[in-house]
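Quick one: C-alpha cells for this chain, please?
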Amino acid sequence: MLHIRVSTPAAAALVAVVLLLTTGGQVSEVAYGRAVAPATQPSAATTGSAYLATHLYFGTGRHNGQPPITDEQFMKFVADVITPRFPSGLTIQQGRGQWRDRSGSINREISYELTVLYPTREARAHNRDIEYIRALYCSMYGLESVGRADVNAQADF
C-alpha cells in the first residue's frame, strides 16, 4: 500500500475527488488527513521521501464522427511514449469520465488515469516529459486536452 500525505486542504480535496472518481465508492477519512497511523508502527508517509504524484486524465472520445480511441491504441501510446519517459513505474486505471468541451457540450467517455510518482528534485525534468505526453496525445487524436493534477506526497517503496 502506498501512503500519500498531502500538504494543503485543497490538495486533500483533490485526492479525495480522484479516489472517489476512480474507485466509484466512498472516500475514507484518510483522504482528508483525519486518520491516525497505529502507534506501534510509523506509516510510510512519515518515513518516506518527498515526491510529486502527477495524475494525467486521458479521454478516448473523439469529435467529428471519429471512432473512440481503443484500448489497444492507448496501450501502444503508453508503451511507445510514456514508458520510455517513466521506466521506473507507473499506474494506469480505466474509468468513466465526463467533461465539458469548448462548445459547452458534456462528453461522457471511457477514460484512463495515469499516475506517476517521482522525487520532487526531478520535477523540472519530468515536467517537460509530462507536457510532451499531453501535447502529443492531443495532436495524435485531435483532442482538446489531457487533464493534469500534481499532488505533493511523501512516498516510500
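Residues 39 and 46 are 12 Å apart (CA to CA).
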